[in-house]
Amino acid sequence: MKGSVGELGEFGLIRELTARISDTPAVRLGPGDDAAVIATPDRRVVASTDILLEGRHFRRDWSTAYDVGRKAAAQNLADIAAMGAVPTAILLGLVVPAELPVTWPTELMDGIHDECQVAGAGVAGGDVVRGDAITVSITALGDLRDREPVTRSGARPGDLLAVTGWLGWSAAGFTVLSRGFRSPRAFVEAHRRPEPPYHAGPAAAALGATAMTDVSDGLIADLGHIAHSSGVRIDIHAESLDVPAQMSDIGHAVGVDPLQWVLTGGEDHAIVATFPADTKLPARWRVIGQVLPARGSVRPQVTVDGAPWERDGGWDHFGSGG
Amino acid sequence: MKGSVGELGEFGLIRELTARISDTPAVRLGPGDDAAVIATPDRRVVASTDILLEGRHFRRDWSTAYDVGRKAAAQNLADIAAMGAVPTAILLGLVVPAELPVTWPTELMDGIHDECQVAGAGVAGGDVVRGDAITVSITALGDLRDREPVTRSGARPGDLLAVTGWLGWSAAGFTVLSRGFRSPRAFVEAHRRPEPPYHAGPAAAALGATAMTDVSDGLIADLGHIAHSSGVRIDIHAESLDVPAQMSDIGHAVGVDPLQWVLTGGEDHAIVATFPADTKLPARWRVIGQVLPARGSVRPQVTVDGAPWERDGGWDHFGSGG
């Protein structure tokens, strides 16, 4: 498709975007009315919203519109999964400059749609507005399937800490890209397009997870929220973390300890959860630490092998986020 | 509160904003986790999203942050009511420049909160991001209370057309403001802070409304959506419209036919609906026209006293929106 958003006009763009949406069972009434209607068989709905800005959350020279769409949807759908819910639908708010080629928002929508398909969700509705800065606002909805939501506040001393999904891959890819390289491809791809293990969220809830979150800001940072909300300390066992050989190689090449990526890199949207110690976890979960009693008001409450993680800027940055 | 958003920081601002939220029954789990949990006793949720941009949708010299918050919440909550649903919760996405005084987003949140209270909804969660242009993205949710949603597609020839709420007040206020005046206050206030009749949406659904929408873009424009979706013509009886004497006075003073404001002015978020002809409407509803068979492909399908409304730019503008 040729032309700019301004040439096509707002109604034309909305038509192009809605044409890219396919029916899904949960979306009872899709775009085109005052509001959408989405099934919530559980009698509760889980809802999360995020805003992504060009320049701050994505760069058009690093990521295609399609990848931005996948990523924007993924980070919201992962929030739903991290509550133990099954994603059902998203709503999209989009600000686009008049001079933007129409292909950008349409490919963005393709990416959003495809990521929704992976998660089992549908695009229920949205709003498009012309403005100076590309802004993608996504609200994701999900269904708890008669289970209680798994919040950040249920971790108890003695619980084991486990993760599934990828850690540090996006950060390694970001480092590579920011130094002007385009490979190794696996990490660059991981930065452009995360693959959250959506199924793992509801599965963890069914297994009795006591607390859960997705890793959006970095493992230590996000566990900090669980430690703070639960009133516990969480100790990560560095040896149990998966540092792929290729990640070590890049780390060596660019002078970064790859453990730094694994412990502090965000945007992979791995799912990390605490479980009662006797929980039998499926193969794709990796036990990476344990929950301990809080050390009074001593910060941080997230440690690595019993000590604060102080490399590359230290832990204060994360502690202040709790 | 003194200082800028940049000085306070993102976490500090989120703390300030969430401190302004009060508990409501439908919000089972509010801000602070990966996602919120909202009650949906009906097993369906109604959801709508809108983006407001500074300069395009509001001006800081015309409206206070508090008023922008009321208006942003109102336009989304009205969408929920216009489906026949009871608003339950909203989620807020907010982009704020670093140099913006902290009082702006906190007063915005006060306005959002107060408007939610009027509608019976709660603030369930949100996201705050720093960026160049103030952007307010709101997603509103609602409950259908075991009634079918009232869409735009159910109007049938023979139905009566009725409205409740205000028409043309915001447009008259906008005209006054754009000519540098600050009064008459009633209209300026109406522009700054609409008062959608939220209760009327579910009430109309209970009365058997066949199609419904809120007037956000103008009566003729929004009825155009109903006419198009329902495959009917809608005729407005000009004589039945309420044109207050004070509105006529302003119209005379500024050289605008006040009927133009009533028929084409948006943002008051009146609720307009079609009903079977024998429906007994409560006192606050005003019958303003009727539904007729479509005139083949002759445009427009919304007429005023049987003829297209062609004043000030004509009807093509609206016809193209159908």
TrEMBL record, chains A, B:
Family annotation (Gene3D superfamilies): PurM-like C-terminal domain (3.90.650.10), PurM-like, N-terminal domain (3.30.1330.10)
Keyword Repeat: no
Residues in PurM-like C-terminal domain copies: 156-245
Binding site for Mg(2+) 1: T49, D50, D127
Coiled coil: none
EC number: 2.7.4.16
Binding site for Mg(2+) 2: D50, D79
Residues reported to bind Mg(2+) 3: D34, D79, D214
Binding site for substrate: H57, E267, W315
A Pfam family this chain is assigned to: AIRS_C
Matches recorded under InterPro entries: PurM-like_C_dom, PurM-like_C_sf, PurM-like_N, PurM-like_N_sf, ThiL-like
Protein keywords: ATP-binding, Kinase, Magnesium, Metal-binding, Nucleotide-binding, Thiamine biosynthesis, Transferase
GO biological process assignments: thiamine biosynthetic process; thiamine diphosphate biosynthetic process
Keyword Transport attributed: no
Record: residues binding ATP: G126, D127, R152, S216
Domain PurM-like N-terminal: 32-142
Binding site for Mg(2+) 5: D217
Protein family per UniProt: Belongs to the thiamine-monophosphate kinase family.
Function (record text): Catalyzes the ATP-dependent phosphorylation of thiamine-monophosphate (TMP) to form thiamine-pyrophosphate (TPP), the active form of vitamin B1.
Note: Reaction mechanism of ThiL seems to utilize a direct, inline transfer of the gamma-phosphate of ATP to TMP rather than a phosphorylated enzyme intermediate.
Entry protein name: Thiamine-monophosphate kinase
